[in-house]
Amino acid sequence: MLEKHYIQKKDNTDLNVYRCGIESCVANHMWGPGVRDHFLVHIIQDGKGILSMGRKSFHLSQGDGFVLPPNVLASWEADASEPWTYAWVGFHGLKATSILRKTGLSEENPVFQQGGSNQLHKSMMATVEAARQEENRSAAAGSDLMLTGHLYLFLSELIDICRQQGRMMNSSGPSRHVQKAMDYMMRHYLDSFSVENMAKALSLDRSYLSTLIKKTTGQSPQAHLIRIRMEKAMVFMNHPQLSIADIARSVGYNDPAQFSKTFHKVFGIPPMQARKQCFTTVFQEQDKVVEETE
Prior knowledge:
10 strands
């Protein structure tokens, strides 16, 4: 079973539902590796699967959920014996980032659990139902407002659940230091980066911060910075007007050869091959959308 809804209306610039749906996957069904230009939240209704984001993998099952932030490289695959069924909602807007920040979910910590309550799943399904009505506007005047309203309710409940699970960004202690470090690297990935400068900016001891980041993420600060740069580079591969040298400079490498070497090490293929694959995927996705709308 596959149900997809794409919402074309974009008048509500603060927060907009972009896409939503439900899918019962076949065994080993896989999406990615790839990126999205919007936030995407999944809730697993049944079965099992694996989410891969960066160098981390998460084994998920019924009641679990995850968020994919924009421009973050990820993939997920259904279990071979118990493939999952999930519902999802994708959204963007001027307030989308600030709202998701309140959950504490990020590319380092993308997974949440519904707990004993099924309310979050109900809100997700109410959003999908509103999208069905939006596609039949003559039968549901004002359904676009209903759709946005259900999204706000869903995100409000997600914030509450994540607060209960101790994921709030304003929590004190090591998790807050790590999140600040992640934010610092996202802002300064183009700069001449050093852990010492980051530690000074965060008023922390260099060794303590490095150890904390390694313990929390499984990566050193330098390795995490490389991952940020390479994921940004993968996004830029979709822009045909940018040369490989342009992309290298856009992610903090003045030496295209060093950039190509690092890219190959991270992804296992050279930049030019990745670019060809990106264009092939884009054309396939466009063909699929055309087929689905015909």
